[in-house]
Amino acid sequence: MAAERLVVVTDPIDASALEALRSGPCRVLDASATPTELARHLGDAWGLIVRSRTKVTADLLAKAPHLALVARAGVGVDNIDLAAAAARGIRVANAPGAAATSVAELTVALYLILVRGLWGSVVSTRAGRWERGAHGHELAGRTVGFVGYGRIAREVARRIVPFGARAVAYDPFVPRSGDSTETMALDAVLGAADIVSLHAALTPENRHLIDARAFAKMRPGAYLVNVARGALVDEAALLAALRSGRLAGAALDVFETEPPTSRELLEDPRVIPTPHLGALTEEGQRRAGAEIVNEVLRALHGEPLASLVAPPGGAR
User: Fold this and answer.
1) Of 72, 142, 276, 287, which is the active-site residue?
2) CATH, domain range 100-273
3) Distance CA 17, CA 20 (A)
4) 206 φ, ψ to 5°?
């Protein structure tokens, strides 16, 4: 019976969303505080609510014989084995719009910190130095090149146009932007942009998309901003591009390994590192929880899902 379906919450979600889920036609088990004990709850689970911490592998799915739904309280689903889920007929849903505003605002903040050279100024002022004079640049007149032009990139573009910045974008799934952003080939974006801004979903095909070859295509003195997925960037090649002077700086909210293990990258004075917090505003987390719980409730009631993730090989 639907009332007996068990939904296991594996990672923390907003408290009000959790309360709304408990009012639905299901049993709810909040296992977010004890991730090491998740395996013993999988045997009865009908649904899982995950964020990025839980890795929904083929092995995990094999331990959940009754599983019908994996719901990701966020955008990216690279922590879910979509092929294994599809083979079992397990639906995967996400909350694609929840974090757009939060990540877009962080992205613009990182642009401004990089272009104005504020990171070094904060460090030097704290150290007791008073280093004034002509410093940094304006965002006005700069070209931002988006790699990936989905919801978040569009929100960023909408915010930078009033600054007087130009936007160009590469996205193989978006032949025309529908706004003032000009779409072009990846190499053209890399060559045109003062700031290369990454917003693509991670797939096996685009791992290390931004590698030594890509850095060689970028303008000398350009900046890289990555708020998408760390594995889009070859971090060794990034470090080499920074040290050679090819890049003026980078802002990274995501890393290939999290927490990152490369002290060289973290300690480079041209790198602004943040701990994958783009979506972690209070507002963003409330939206993510509410959106994904609404999706789970739709599934429990037998209604069509609003944010069903396409199976591997399907449309994005």
Assistant:
1) 276
2) 3.40.50.720
3) 5
4) -110, 15
Could you confirm whether 5 is annotated as catalytic?
no
Burial class of 21 by CB neighbour count within 10 A (0 to 12, 13 to 18, 19+): buried
Domains 2-96+282-300 and 100-273 share a fold: yes
Measured CA to CA in angstroms, residue 268 lies from 11, 120, 223, 242, 249 at distances of 32, 11, 14, 9, 9
Given the residues 258, 264, 283, 303, select the one marked as catalytic: 258
Residue 263 annotated as catalytic: no
Of the candidates 55, 15, 6, the one whose C-alpha atom is nearest the C-alpha of residue 35 is 55
Q: How confident is the model at residue 150 (pLDDT cuts 50, 70, 90)?
A: very high
Active site residue 258: yes
Domain ranges of the chain: 2-96+282-300, 100-273
Catalytic residue among 154, 199, 229, 270: 229
At 10, which amino acid appears? T
Region 197-209: mean pLDDT is 94
